[in-house]
């Protein structure tokens, strides 16, 4: 073998040895990488397991807290609500059974055909709700519709819609009307007097203002004797900011004197006598008979009732005064509705059919009301 050939072989051997070394290096690196990846994989797996255990434990805690909250609600809040609901159900059942028994009694009396018995039923027990009054004054003979009698178009649908709109009883009259102004613990005679005074203060005054003034008067002492002996300026301050208070102070003092001298400090029992008191007109008289004596003598028509009846055409032709509206309304409205029509329409007038800018867009009567601004726009 020549020397050159030997050198070539040696060179090739060195080069292949280098390649082998490199390969081994790479192999070792790759093994290291594999080790590292495997270790990372196990790290991640361990972490995941730890997290899973933590999540399970957190979920368990949340479940337990939720269960304990539900138990709290069940044991604390619901009994109240249930009691309130139970009370309402009991009350409603008792009213229903009272109504049923009254209706049965009245039907029996009507079957006998004796008017005197009707009077007996009317005076026997004092009804407490409008419904019971209605049941008692409802006479099937009156409900026979006279075909020649004028009735406004759609009036029953309108009334039903107004009832629906008023069902939440959120108007000022519901919580602060004159029927809510007397001291609930007062003697019935004093309570009647306070209702009359509230009515006298209420004309051209908001329910909120009248109610607040009555609270002050009741705390001060609202009996005919105390009011009659109170100086005018003190009374004026007590009822401030009631409208026309100077005039009203004169009226309530004069009326108190009459009540002491002629009615043994009680209020008159008839509409006629009530209307003889200074500052008391038919509207006040009818409402007073209803609130104080639980009797329906007629419809109390104030500015709300007057305005709404004209807007929804519950009068044959436009009326100019509340008194004209009352007479027109009493001509056609069935008697069993007289009891609550004032309260329904006053609240409706306070919340929806406002004196200025009635809220026709949210009124259920907007499609049938002759004064609806929505319908007129169509
Ligand atoms: S539609 Fe308008 S005007 Fe007619 S009753 Fe309703 S709120 Fe009043």
Structural class of the secondary elements? Answer: mainly alpha
What count of helical segments does DSSP give?
17
Radius of gyration: 42 Å
Order of helices and strands: HHHHHHHHHHHHHHHHH
Would you count the extended β strands for me? 0
Q: Could you give the distance between the termini?
A: 120 Å
What is this structure's SSE topology?
Elements: H1 3-112, H2 115-124, H3 130-137, H4 140-143, H5 155-165, H6 172-176, H7 188-202, H8 207-220, H9 224-228, H10 232-239, H11 245-262, H12 271-276, H13 282-293, H14 303-311, H15 322-332, H16 338-351, H17 373-377
Iron/sulfur cluster binds at residues 311-312, 352-353, 358-360, 363, 365-366, 369, 371-372.
Describe this protein's structure:
The chain is an all-alpha fold. Helix content is 70%, strand content 0%. The protein has 17 helices and no strands. It has helices at residues 3-112, 115-124, 130-137, 140-143, 155-165, 172-176, 188-202, 207-220, 224-228, 232-239, 245-262, 271-276, 282-293, 303-311, 322-332, 338-351, 373-377. Helix 1 runs parallel beside helix 3 and helix 7 (188-202) runs antiparallel to helix 13. It is elongated, with a radius of gyration of 42 Å. Residues 72-83, 102-128 and 137-144 have low confidence and may be disordered. Bound molecules: iron/sulfur cluster (SF4). Iron/sulfur cluster is lined by residues 311-312, 352-353, 358-360, 363, 365-366, 369, 371-372.
Structure at a glance:
This protein is mainly α and 378 residues long. Helix 7 crosses helix 8, helix 7 runs antiparallel to helix 13 and helix 14 packs across helix 16.
């Amino acid at each position: 073998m020549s020397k050159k050939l030997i050198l070539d072989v040696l060179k090739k051997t060195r080069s292949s040895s280098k390649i082998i070394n490199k390969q081994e290096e790479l192999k070792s690196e790759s093994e290291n990488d594999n080790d590292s990846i495997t270790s990372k994989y196990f790290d991640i797996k361990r972490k995941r397991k730890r997290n899973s255990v933590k999540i399970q434990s957190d979920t368990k805690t949340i479940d337990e807290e939720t269960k304990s909250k539900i138990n709290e609600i069940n044991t604390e809040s619901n009994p109240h609500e249930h009691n309130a609901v139970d009370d309402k159900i009991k009350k409603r059942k008792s009213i229903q059974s009272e109504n049923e028994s009254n209706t049965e009694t009245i039907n029996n009396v009507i079957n006998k055909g004796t008017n005197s018995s009707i009077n007996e039923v009317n005076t026997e027990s004092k009804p407490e709700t409008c419904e019971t009054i209605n049941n008692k004054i409802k006479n099937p003979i009156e409900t026979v519709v006279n075909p020649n009698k004028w009735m406004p178009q759609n009036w029953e649908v309108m009334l039903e819609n107004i009832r629906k709109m008023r069902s939440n009883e959120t108007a000022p009259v519901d919580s602060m009307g004159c029927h809510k102004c007397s001291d609930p613990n007062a003697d019935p005679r004093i309570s009647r007097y306070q209702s009359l005074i509230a009515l006298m203060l209420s004309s051209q005054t908001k329910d909120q203002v009248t109610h607040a003034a009555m609270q002050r008067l009741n705390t001060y002492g609202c009996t005919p004797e105390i009011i009659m002996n109170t100086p005018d300026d003190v009374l004026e301050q007590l009822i401030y900011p009631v409208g026309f208070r100077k005039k009203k102070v004169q009226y309530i003092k004069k009326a108190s004197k009459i009540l002491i001298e002629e009615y043994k400090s009680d209020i008159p029992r008839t509409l006629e006598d009530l209307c003889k008191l200074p500052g008391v007109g038919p509207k006040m008289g009818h409402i007073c008979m209803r609130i104080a004596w639980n009797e329906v003598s007629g419809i109390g028509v104030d500015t709300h009732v007057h305005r709404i009846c004209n807007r929804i055409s519950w009068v044959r032709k436009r009326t100019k005064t509340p008194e004209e509206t009352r007479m027109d309304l009493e001509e056609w409205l069935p008697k069993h509705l007289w009891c609550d029509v004032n309260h329904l329409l006053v609240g409706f007038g306070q919340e929806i059919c406002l004196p200025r800018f009635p809220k026709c867009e949210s009124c259920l009567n907007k499609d049938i009301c002759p004064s609806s601004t929505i319908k007129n726009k169509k």
